[in-house]
Amino acid sequence: MSSINSIRFNQDKSCFHCCLDNGLRIYNVEPLVEKVHFDEKFLGSVGYCEMVYRCNLFAIVSGGNRPKYADNTVLVYDDIKKRSVLEFTFTQPVLSIRCRRDRLVAILKNKIHIFSFPNNPQKLFTIETRSNPSGLCELSPGIHNLLVFPGFRDGSIQIVNLSTTEASVSSCPVTINAHQGEIACLSINQSGSMIATASDKGTLIRVWDSQKRALLNELRRGSDPATLYCINFSLDSDFLCCSSDKGTIHIFAIKDSHLNRRSTFSKMGFLGNYIESQWALANFTVPPECACICAFASHSSVVAICMDGTFHKYVFNSDGQCSRLSFDVFLDVCGDEDF
């Protein structure tokens, strides 16, 4: 099995891509079907990729053991034309890419570059950031055109409204002091109205109103420190899921937060915030030895895509019951001709 370098969902979570040492694969989630397959001869080994919903364009950065291009270059490929149609080159390696229908964002260690995209592509402006070796950054796909990334102060995030910016002029970032420790995981909902954050401690997830900068929910993943790999909202923002190195996918209710579990001692306020925390409504386990991402699918289901090549799908209900619907090794899944 070829080494997997990264995996990520597209903006509406209907697809995911898998960057490999021997190329790139793109899969449909429901049903699980391979849609695009580029081998090593065409792309080399791929480090990062970003889709643009389900359209024919996707952006890549080379990486892995057999790169064909430099790691400081973003290439935009057209799957219909079967060739690169845009190229963006920087002075430092590109750590991640984010796209929406009208913007492309390249994240470097200390800078974020924002471009108009794909028509008349040009650099709009550059944001100086704190050291961001993981390339943490999220871009809202919806009506609130927001960019979110770690702030200069430990535990803070910065929010830039890209709708109020012009070429070479960025709006002043808004700062939220979200945690005490360094930000380790970020997510933004479809409309851009809510942002979820977690620190490197990994015990709490906080959900923020992006416009009012107010705390909406504090969710407890667990009591032991953990590395969070992924946080995602459901498309309607009623639920949130997360994955970590503990091998457990946690599902929380956001809209009807009373559905979340609470300690039987929660009314005894003198016991402190730990007892009063909201715990996951439901959860299920995946192999703990490998990283995975998770997202909501149809009919109250959650899928987890793991770096060992496995695909897990579970359904949950408001009582917290969770049961497995399907399991596959996605690298073995055959494709079809419709994408």
From TrEMBL:
Q: What biological processes does GO assign it?
A: autophagy
Its GO CC terms are: cytoplasm
Chain segments annotated as coiled-coil in the UniProt record: none
Keyword presence, Repeat:
yes
Alphabetized, the UniProt keywords read: Autophagy, Repeat, WD repeat
Q: Belongs to which family?
A: Belongs to the WD repeat PROPPIN family.
Protein name as catalogued: WD repeat domain phosphoinositide-interacting protein 4
Supply the source organism for this entry.
Orchesella cincta (Springtail)
Q: What is the lineage of its organism?
A: Eukaryota, Metazoa, Ecdysozoa, Arthropoda, Hexapoda
